[in-house]
Amino acid sequence: MFLRQREPLVFDRSVPGKRGMDLPKLDVPVAKDTRPAHLKRSGFDAMPELSEVEVIRHFTRLSKWNYGVDDGMYPLGSCTMKHNPRLNEKVAGMPGFTDSHPMAPDALVQGNLEMLYTLQEWLKEITGLPGVTLQPSAGAAGELTGVMLIRAYHLSKGAKRRVILIPDSGHGTNPATAAMAGYEVVELPSGPDGTISFDDVTDPVNGKVRKGLKTLVSELGHEIAGAMITNPNTIGVFEYRFKEISDLLHSVDALVYMDGANMNALVGVARPGDFGVDVMHLNLHKTMSTPHGGGGPGAGPVCCGANLMPFLPVPVVMRDTVKVGEGEVPKHSYRMDWDQPQSIGKVHTFYGNFGILVRALTYCLSHGSDGLKAATMRAIVNANYIRTRLKGAYALHIDSPTLHEVVFSDTIQAKHDVHTLDIAKRLIDHGYHPPTIYFPLIVPGALMIEPTESEGKDELDAFCDTMLQIAKEAEENPDLLHQAPMLAPLRRLDETTAARKPVLRWTKAL
Amino acid sequence: MRYLPSSPIEDQALLDTIGVPNAEALLVGIPEPLRLHRELDLPTQGSEQEVAWQMMNLANKNMRFCAQFLGAGAYDHFVPSAIDAMISRQEWFTAYTPYQPEISQGTLQHIFEYQTLICDLTGLEVTNASLYDGGTACVEAALMAVRVAKKRNTVLVSRGLHPMYRDVLKTNFAPHDGLNLVEVDLKDGVTDLADLQAKLNGDVAAVLVGYPNFLGVVEDLTALAGPIHAAGALLVSVTQEAFAFGWFEAPGKVGADMACGEAMSLGNKPNYGGPFLGFLAVKDAHKREIPGRVVGQAKDLEGRTGYVLTLTAREQHIRRDKATSNICSNQGLVALRANIFMQLAGPKGLRGLAEQNAAKAQYLRQRLLELPDMEPMLDQPFFNEFVLRYTGDYAALQEACLKESLLPGLDLGRFYPEYAGCILWCATELHTRQMIESLVEILARVPAAV
Q1: Domain coordinates of chain B in residue numbers?
Q2: What's the Cα-to-Cα distance from B202 to each of B96, B151, B233, B258, rounded to whole Å?
Q3: Contacts of A25 in chain B (CB under 8 A)
Q4: Whether the complex's predicted ipTM surpasses the cut of 0.95
Q5: How far apart are CA A111 and CA A118, in angstroms?
Q6: Of A467, A449, A464, A455, the residue nearest A77 (C-alpha)
């Protein structure tokens, strides 16, 4: 980045007669046209005509307006933008994996099945939970699968429950998921320390009382199907009363779902299965370094306790072991088991984002138990280093050691009429992708910074120096921030008009 | 650990600045009893060389084929070299969702172009940045139709829809007590018009129909649209083989109100079923009900054209439990592969590839029918998949094919008991005449069923 010259839309570069793909010579008779006249393809309106070199230049130039993890620190909080090892890409591209057909009989894809089984074993040990499905394609798909498991659990006991509890600091996907699974969402308030409040919370501004966990559990009781809790939460703090929370919920047979978006803080350090979690998802595109791809594909495996295993999506990957003889290595074979009478059914057309799962297992094997823990510890050290260096210049939401990410607010800069958005845009001028902003919602003007374990001291220092300089600029020359970014290919974009009069595709009239 | 930029001197400097004696001191927020007081019971770290070898061993345990005559929702097509080269650029594959438009114009402009091309393929007006796969795209389409149709609570699904798409629909409809999912029968390999008409009523929000359907047959959307629209319902076409858009008319031009399905064919290998590419295209009037990320044009402060994520008021990070869907991460990089594929192919490439697929499938069918134990099944227009009845033993046929490294078509009885003894065959531009002749030769030698 950054190429300052504009690359036009591909449609403006199209010239009739050019082509970027040749076809093989047809070695069979030309197809007989049996199509009903009205079902014959009439034509295309936008499909461009270009040579290969033009297509490659187009996408190369466009790519230069992006920022990637290899450009530098990508401090998006809750997104865990860590290094994407190239070995993982190479392995996922091995023809033995890429050419394999999802409808092929199990006996022909033993390598795939062993791969899936092995990854499941790793995730079981990492989470401390005995059941796994690798089918969900992303975190939100994992959430939906997990909540459907909770629903199946209650139905199996003849109970239909109505409510899912979700903290006000949770990701938007949590309430959206609960609604998609047919539940009503009741919000759990955060206390002053950012964790779930057991007691009722009175809003200091409007005096409204919001019911805390204890009140909600006693009032709603058996109406509660479960709670979806992000841990560590979105402020980077471990819900230190997690065991009490889960005990309280379990007392009314409500289940605990853990949003594992922030699992990069816990791998090798604490296991959800050991502190009361019934079901959770992992974001392999966060914790296990599979690339974000500009928005996906990800993978959101779900891990659960024995109480939920009968309901896992079909098929379930199984290993059969045949004892060969005394002192010999037993022989394993793997299969997809479709005979799960209590299963919620399928949640993906086939078996999930397989290529992403291959990358995740490669990450696990590379790190091993020792490397996984070292990565967690380094991610925590890095976040605390940033916390320490920026403290004072930026307002800390909570002044205690953090885990893998740190959340500041813009209250110091707001005195100069400089706000979080301005700080974020100014970072672009300094050559950084901005952090996550205005989230979590419970922190005013939140700047959520997650450095991950991939940053060395010099990279952390360069980022902190930049943030300190921006803090100084905010005091001395606030307009510099209001105008930012000045050095990007474009200045601030008018999103309001874009949403009011949406132009969502190119047309000849455009 | 080769991925951690760690050295004893620097690590100490970090801890000194933070003011803690060691990293463990930073875990103070996690109560002691909740921590793991042992190492994970897993192998220790592996060098790049060791891990590459280990993973290659797994890949090699899968059987490799000279040719796969199996489609059924995952199609083997040629992938131009430019695609892997392009998506290997770190600016594409390591970037995040383009929340900050000024530093993500590459991804945003690509999605805008991709949206344009998906609309062009389907003949509809609005699409999104992608969905997970064909099955979940059907779910999003069906739920969206229920929102659009207001107060209608039933979705009809043709039995010709991919059986696994129907399974995913069932899973996702189960939690909604007020919603019904009803199957419409097949007759002669296409949606049974009489059964459809019997099931259409004022409660039906939408009808999902395969185009082509799982049996490879093209459904006459125009004929189906009549009664569906008369009943006030929406017609949703579901396409599992995107190459068919080069052969059959765009669904939006022959009566479909929404088009969804699977576009993995555009620049991907079968990959054991994922990552694939779900799509959903709709009419402009329904755009505020579409799920997922949508990119739109915008102007910057100096009046220059750029692109932003838009219509976000529909999405989970704004609307929370009132959002149109919970989808956040999608299949971004797979959409990029499809975009590059379509730009390389252009209109002539898409049409030419479709013609070759049709020609190869017709030739394969003709040659297979010359065998004494293959019989024609459906007399319907098809694209690159078709059904034949096999009077022999499928297991013996499969064994003979595997011995010669050929993967035969699908034993249809596994999903359609009414088609037991039938095989769903597929041929694409990858199948040379030689491969087809080899298959026929091998099948000719399979001993007749006893």
Answers
A1: 67-76+346-444, 81-341
A2: 44, 9, 8, 19
A3: none
A4: yes
A5: 10
A6: A449
Q: Rounded to an integer, what distance in angstroms lies between the CA atom of residue B224 and that of residue B199?
A: 13
> Contact B95/A76, CB-based, under 8 Å?
no
Any bridge partners for residue A391, and if so which?
Answer: A394
Q: What is the DSSP letter of A391?
A: B
Q: Distance between CA atoms of A477 and A470, rounded to whole angstroms? A: 10
Residue B62 near residue A115, CB atoms below 8 Å? no
Q: What Å distances lie between residue B293 and B127, B236, B287, B301, CA to CA?
A: 9, 20, 12, 24
Are residues B247 and A35, on separate chains, in Cβ contact within 8 Å?
yes
* B127 vs A contacts (CB less than 8 Å): 504-505
Domain B81-341 CATH assignment equals 3.40.640.10 = yes
**Do the chains contact at B340 and A30, CB–CB below 8 Å?**
no
* Cis status, amide bond into B275, omega within 30 of 0: yes
In the three-class reduction of DSSP (H, G, I as helix; E, B as strand; rest coil), residue A172 is classed as coil
Q: At what angle do helices A457-476 and A420-429 cross, to 10 degrees?
A: 120
For chain A, give the number of residues.
510
- The residue-averaged pLDDT of A113-138 equals 98
> Hey, are the CB atoms on A137 and B275 less than 8 Å from each other?
yes
**Nearest in space to A263 (alpha carbons), one of A506, A441, A82:** A82
Chain B residues in contact with A385 (beta carbon < 8 A): 14, 17-18
For residues A151-169, give the mean pLDDT. Answer: 96
pLDDT, position B450: 55
Cβ–Cβ gap B102/A139 under 8 Å: no
HEC string for B223-259: HHHHHHHHCCCEEEEEECCHHHHHCECCHHHCCCCEE
- Which residue of B304, B329, B352 is in closest CB contact with A296? B329
Q: Which chain B residue lies closest to A143 (C-alpha atoms)?
A: B326
Q: What global pTM score does this model have? A: 0.97
Residues of B in contact with A319 (CB under 8 A): none
HSE-up of residue B424 (Cα within 13 Å, Cβ side): 28
* Model confidence band, residue A326 (pLDDT cutoffs 50, 70, 90): confident
Residue with tokens 């991939």: A454
Phi then psi dihedrals of residue B131, to 5 deg: -125, 175
Alpha-carbon span B404 to A10, nearest angstrom: 45
* Phi, psi values for residue B113, rounded to 5°: -70, -40
Closest-CA residue of B relative to A108 is: B63
pLDDT band at B449 (very low <50, low <70, confident <90, very high): low
Are the Cβ atoms of A489 and B102 closer than 8 angstroms? Answer: yes
In this complex, do B326 and A351 lie within 8 Å of one another by their Cβ atoms?
A: no
Measured CA to CA in angstroms, residue B385 lies from A446, B35, B380, B429 at distances of 54, 55, 11, 12
Q: Which of B51, B132, B322 sits opposite A362 (nearest CB)?
A: B51
3-state secondary structure of B425: strand
For residue B382, the 8-state DSSP code is B
Test mutation, B100, B308, B355, B438, chain A, max A CBs within 10 A: B100
Smallest Cα distance from B395 to chain A, Å: 11
C-alpha A325/C-alpha A319 separation (Å) is 18
Instruction: Output the six-digit token pair for A68.
Output: 């990637």
- How far apart, in Å, are the Cα atoms of B166 and each of A347, B35, B261? 11, 43, 12
Chain centroid, CA A424 distance in Å = 21
pLDDT for residue A52: 98
CB contact under 8 A, B28 and A401: yes
Pick the closest to residue B206 from B268, B160, B139 (CA basis): B139
- Report the run of H or E that residue A94 belongs to, with start and end: none
Q: All domains of chain A, ordered by start, with CATH?
A: 90-365 (3.40.640.10), 370-490 (3.90.1150.10)
Query: Residue B317: which pLDDT band, with cuts at 50, 70 and 90?
Result: confident
Q: Let me know how many helices (H) and strands (E) chain A has, helices first.
A: 15, 15
On whether the B67-76+346-444 domain is CATH 3.60.20.10, my answer is: no
